[in-house]
Amino acid sequence: MTSANPAAGVAARAPGLPRRLLTDSGYVLLGLPLALASLVVLLVGLALGLGLVVLVVGLPVLTGTLYAARGLADIERLRLAAVRRQPRIRPRYRLPEPGATAWRRIFLPMRDIQSWLDLAHGIFRLPVAIVTFVLTITWWAVALAGTLYATYDWAIPHPPENVDLNELLGLGDTTRARIGVHTAIGLFFLLTLPMVVRGCALVQAGFGRAMLTGVAEMRDRITVLEEQKRAAVSAEASALRRLERDIHDGPQQRLVRLAMDLGRARQQLANDPEAAGRTLDEALDQTRETLAELRGLSRGIAPPILVDRGLPGALAALAGRGLIPIELRVDPDLGTPDGRPEAAVEHAAYFVVAEALTNVAKHARASECRVTVGRRDGHLEISVVDDGQGGAHLAKGHGLAGIADRVRAGGGVLEVTSPTGGPTEIRALLPG
């Protein structure tokens, strides 16, 4: 588990190139002194702890070293967040049990694999920090020195016995040739500076991520998958219970009555043909109503119009059957062959809108509703807003828990904003 929100919505907007360059440069350049400090503190603590372990005194020293490694790792995790443009991820370390003895608390960090990974990162990060530091300093120095060479060429002595680079390249020994060559080199390093510095920052950050957050991210991903699985099972169970209830309350009751009417008509055929005819007419009406209810149930499970025309057509038909005025805004690209989401995402989006409109009709006491569906930053965004009485909440039910399970099962996020007195907004983000 981690402290970051796994489903934290959409990625933040990338900063501009100058800011990105300064951020990456600061990260790389500060990495070297931090790596030196980590190496000294942790290596001395580790050597002292292992050397004194036979005297038992080394155990607290070793534990303190692991806690120091944890603190240094937390500093690096804060720095990683800025470079990788992602929320800070911190592993959940082992915590002492209530009433644990002092010795149990001393041994606790030693039984935590992430503590040893923190220690290994603090000791072995120095070579990576040195290489990236040297490359970054070199590129900055050459870029600045080369592009500004024309401003200080006059201050540099040029004895006749010296052979400059411009002469080696066969461009002559004039001042203009010398300035031109050095300026060209500076411009090349200046143009490649953002790429080189970014690469150095990513190399250093990649090493830190592998050691400090890799296990945490893997555990976090496993947790998210488990939650999605549970949500999918819950959503499927809720859908089956609702379908069973709808069939029991609707078509099943009508079929029972249909069987009774047919039985009565059979008895009436010999004695009262006219009454039998009326009973058969009623049975025919029951058959038509049963078929209509079954079609309604099938539309709720997998509406054919969704398969044939995509979300725009299916949602338009859904809004047309609404009990209150519904303003529908759907991106038309979602109905084109190239713009249609995956089938699972389409069904989830249809389910969200259908259930939300059902809740509006049953509980919101609204006079109008607005449905908006479109793509934003690689996600399918669904918004259902009504002007009802508000007060809706996932914990209160009203069908919202089923919507949340369905969205979570698809890897999305559901947000409900419903202050008392309204308005209410149900907003879902689905991948795709």
Can you give me a brief rundown of this structure?
The protein has 432 residues and is of the alpha+beta class. It is built from 13 helices and five strands.
Characterization of the model:
- With 432 residues, the protein is α+β, with helices and mostly antiparallel strands.
- The chain is 66% helix and 8% strand.
- The two termini are 26 Å apart.
- The N terminus is likely disordered.
The helix-strand sequence is: HHHHHHHHHHHEHEEHEE
Category by helix and strand content: alpha+beta
- Report the total helices: 13
Query: What is the number of beta strands?
Result: 5
Spans where pLDDT lies below 50 across 5 or more residues:
1-13
The global form is elongated
Mean pLDDT across residues:
79
Strand content of the residues, in percent?
5-15%
Secondary structure blueprint with pairings:
Layout: H1 17-51, H2 58-84, H3 102-107, H4 113-147, H5 149-152, H6 165-168, H7 175-212, H8 214-249, H9 251-271, H10 273-301, H11 304-320, E1 326-330, H12 343-364, E2 369-376, E3 379-386, H13 400-409, E4 413-417, E5 424-431
Name its key features:
432 residues, alpha+beta, disordered N terminus
